[in-house]
Amino acid sequence: MGEFFHSVTLDRERCMGCTNCIKRCPTGAIRVREGKATISSERCIDCGECIRICPHHAKQAIYDPLESIERFRYKIALPAPSLYAQFNNLEDTDLVLSALEELGFDEVYEVACAAELVSDATRRYLARPDVVKPVISSACPAVLRLIGVRFPGLLAHVLPILAPVELAARLAKRQAAQRTGILPEQIGAVFISPCPAKVTAMRMPLGSEHSEIDAVPAMKEVYPKLLGKMKQTAARPISASGRIGLGWAESGGEAAGLISTERYLAADGIENVIRVLEDLEDEKLGELDFVELNACSGGCVGGVLTVENPYIARAKLKLLRRYLPVSRNHLTGEESAQLLWDAPMEYEPVLELGGDASERFARYSEMQRLLAVLPGLDCGSCGAPSCAALAEDIVRGEAATEDCVVLMRERMEAVLRALRIDRKNHSGV
């Protein structure tokens, strides 16, 4: 395991040690120690759930400021399909794309266009006789990292095709270099992101050795600046995506775009995703061809870097898509092979208890002994999300049984009872 980059960070000054976050972390990456939360770098998958749940705004996302685009000679905006769903009364996506050019971008390449190519490539991939089914979507980087640290047995099921945003960056930069003669290193591909996991994916890509995305500003930062430009800009014909491409913004949109199969499942929200992955691990869903999973509720429209309620955003998308063609982007036979991963995804054993098998077995046995002692209330007062997590921390040497408030209370009550009995005995002499 190498260095970890994380787009989700903790502001210790704002943290009140309230333990709200520890229950919602899908990999148990958060603990509260000495009145402050800590985030395990090895376990965090940057899903942003702690940002969503923290009442004190102590969890924050790192992203690139929009001004960072100025370091590039030629600037390409890569708007996520969910960007369109942030605006009220929007009838033409070209207005948003034209406003992006007014913000200082030389060109706009819709991620929705690349999504339609990925949908086409996925249909071809599912038709192969050697494919392990059900195939799990590779579009959500938070889900991919969750599988990598918690469900290694499912790695063979992951779709080995580039995420739409990575494909968009590659295609946009290559076409711009050919058209303008500008060197690729002077061209910046800038993804306007709805979630922090995409920021991490730029720095630590999955499925490729190197990401062609050069900067990732937050959608919530770009949104107010776009609003001003949209009021002053006339829409120019730029959009080249259809219903399938825009559909990727919401849960079920990717799967529905496959068309060739109805045997699919779509789940969103990290807790629902975990339940589906557990069922996949137990081989309960073998009759399916495809599984689409989104860490954010509602899909990408529910990312913590968006501004609109995800359910309202989905309603807006439905209106935007109604008059669009089904798809405006299709692959040739040779192009589909270029979309495949160029680096395998590997298991990160960050949740294992020790090095060799004997050490893991010894620690597991000690955990079981501790669980028999601990109360099993999973109250979180110890700073761990559950009694099992506290037992794991103890065997790792990161906590002690004294951290359990319930056990400490029982011990104190036993001491008080003994003192009262002793006092009564003495007073009766």
What structural class do the secondary elements suggest? mainly alpha
Largest sheet: 3 strands, parallel
Percent of residues in beta strands? 5-15%
In DSSP terms, counting alpha (H) and pi (I) runs of 4 or more, how many helices?
15
Could you give the count of β-strands?
10
Number of domains: 3
- The averaged pLDDT comes out at 93
Spatial ordering of strands, largest sheet: 6-5-8
Determine Rg (CA atoms, Å).
Answer: 25 Å
Give the ordered list of helices and strands.
EEEHEEHEHEHHEHHHHEHEHHHHH
The dominant shape is elongated
Q: Could you list the spans in which at least 5 consecutive residues all have pLDDT below 50?
A: none
Keywords:
429 residues; 3 domains; three-stranded parallel β-sheet; mainly alpha; 10 strands; 3-methyladenine DNA Glycosylase II, Chain A, domain 3
Structure description:
The chain has 3 domains: 62 residues, Alpha-Beta Plaits, CATH 3.30.70; 273 residues, no CATH class; 78 residues, Electron transport complex subunit B, putative Fe-S cluster (3-methyladenine DNA Glycosylase II, Chain A, domain 3, Orthogonal Bundle). The chain is built from 15 helices and 10 strands. The strands form 4 sheets. It has a 3-stranded parallel β-sheet, with helices on both faces. Strands 7-10-9 form a 3-stranded parallel β-sheet. A hairpin with a 2-residue loop joins strand 2 and strand 3. It is elongated and about 95 Å long.
